[in-house]
Amino acid sequence: MDRESRESAGLPRRSLAWAPRTIPPLLLALAFFAIGGTALGQIDADETFFTVDEFVGEDGQTGDAIYKRVVANRFDAFEQVGRMRSGSRNQRFQDVRIRLRYMNVEKTGSPIVSKTIAKYFEPSDVRHLGYLIINKRKGPDDQFVYRPSARKVRRVNVRGEAVAGTDFSFEDIVPPEFEDGAHSRLPDQLIQGTPAYVVAVVPHADTESEYSKLVIAVEKEHFVPIQTHYWDNKRVLIKRLDVDPASISSHQATEKGQAKEVWVALSSKMTQLKLDTFTELDIEEFKANPNLRSRHFSERELTASR
Fold first, then answer.
1. Topology, domain 3-14+40-303
2. What is the pLDDT of residues 238-272, one digit of tens each?
3. Partner of 11 for a Cys bridge, out of 6, 168, 261, 305, CB 3.0 to 4.6 A?
4. For the CA atoms of 76, 78, 83, 84, what is the dihedral angle to 10 degrees?
5. Coil, strand or helix: which one is 173?
6. Which of 84, 127, 122, 14 lies closest to 283 in space, CA to CA?
């Protein structure tokens, strides 16, 4: 997206001072990275599947502390429009555009942590298809789908469902919460020249996650994940998400009466390691702390044709 297009969409100019000079080209348009081995730029995953002993660095940061900083790098509410382009080495598939809204509703004693609603508006055959996820502090989340062909809202488990046939699932695009898993720090690494913390996340059983483990590389300056590996529930490494560090940009808004700055990755790519397919995700629009209310995260909103 060029400078004029970014400004017309309400996106800030990209930060040029932050991006490391050694990086070749969330979220995306990335080239394929080498698979296997311990090549520079790829997480060297621990051979032990479930981490037992947590790495202790000189900075004293724990896995919990690092992941809390990741989750804190987020506005209490935001809205974004993303374009996904799927393909393989031999062919490309149709584009998908989706609008996602998120709102943190956590209050002392409240069983609900956050709400997310996602609705398609391209291509035409999935237009108005929508999903609503209510993330709970304990137990399985409330998850609903609205399919225009059936004109009904149904309760389902959407976490493992692919986003319109792309390599992303809804679990990948719904903002995670700290309460969803256990976090252990692994040794730091360089990911495409960027110093990164590495954290293993094991989802709690009651979240009904499609993954048994994630290993996340988090750049150290703004606590933005720049690479994630995903293991399925058979403990097989199946996917890798790569973020373009040059796409990480600053967004400012007023939150709870104070100025807040959040860093967002606008370009990324998800790769299915066995199928050798990929999906590029570009965040085309991002709104910080829009005027969202509970009514924007209801079954009625899910069925609205807009």
1. outer membrane lipoprotein receptor (LolB), chain A (2.50.20)
2. 999 999 999 999 999 999 889 999 999 999 999 99
3. 6
4. 20
5. helix
6. 84
